[in-house]
Amino acid sequence: KGVGEQLASFGEASVSASRLTWLGLLGAALAHGCLIALTRLASERFGLGPLFLLLVRSVVQLLSLAVPLHRGQNPFGPEGYRLHLVCYGIAYSLSLCCAYSSLTFVSPGNGTTTWRLATTALSATLAFLLLEERLGLADGITLAAGLCGLGLLLLPTTDESFSDSQVDPVAFWKEAFGWSLSALAGLWTALALVGYRSLKDRIGVGTALFTVSWTGCLLTPATLVLLQEGWSWPMSAPAWGVILGLVACSVAAFLGMTHALTRLHPALVSASQSLEVPVAMLLHLAMLPSVPTAPEVVGNAMVVLSVSWLVAMKLLPSRVGGRRQREEYEEILESPIK
Questions:
Q1: Within a domain: residue 5?
Q2: Which of 1, 100, 116, 278 is in Cβ range 3.0-4.6 Å of 300 for a Cys bridge?
Q3: Where is the EamA domain (predicted)?
Q4: Using one digit for the tens of pLDDT, what is the confidence trace for 65-87?
């Protein structure tokens, strides 16, 4: 009877926490989609380079220093974990530098899709190799469906398929470099997600945000110099409004995603953020109406359905609810990183 009461109490608390976690994740995906749209808007309408936007974002986010200080915590992490925290911050900042740099060479849609596809696939692999965390069969199938949807979005259009003879070698290698940067961004992001997953009991979300911010302030200027991206300062109120909206979306997305890592597998967290791709496409179509191609429609539909099914599996009640609660309880007790 005592175990039954414990399981019932645990089940209620677990369902409530899961709902909040997934709600935060979906909010983070929407924020990521808005972030992509705002980055494209700032670049196309106001001539602001992606890396400059990343630098401003990192500088403003230094205000997150107030969170660990308010809680009486060391903003650089507890002793014994500071090196791990710095490595996490460097990995996350490198992923952003690679992702934003790729936007100079490939379209934002292709760059974001490649980044998310690589992150999800590599998160599942690295979590298994480094943390011994496995995905369930249903989760794996759902993730595979979402990855197939992202893959469809990367298929070349008809015009691109028949223009091979007119491709400039310099343009080809620039585009190849952009694709490589997007894939590399996925690798660094996966390492960062898995890294924070291993630190979740020691490092708060506020401390993680401050770490990503100060490492970004160091790495982004170096990337600017390396790629020789032009510097353009926003000269109008609308431009600054876009930048502030970009910063707000980035903070909201980071908080929702990082908080979810304390409870969920890194690959599930990344897969849920795939929703950013259709959100960004809808926002782009709202600003610049055009007709999407068939692969874009099918691919985005597969992404939305896979994320919806993933959320439904985790939150909707089932006939085996009691057995599921017991399995979750035992899984937490036996987890190597509990």
A1: no
A2: 278
A3: 23-154
A4: 999 999 999 999 999 899 999 99
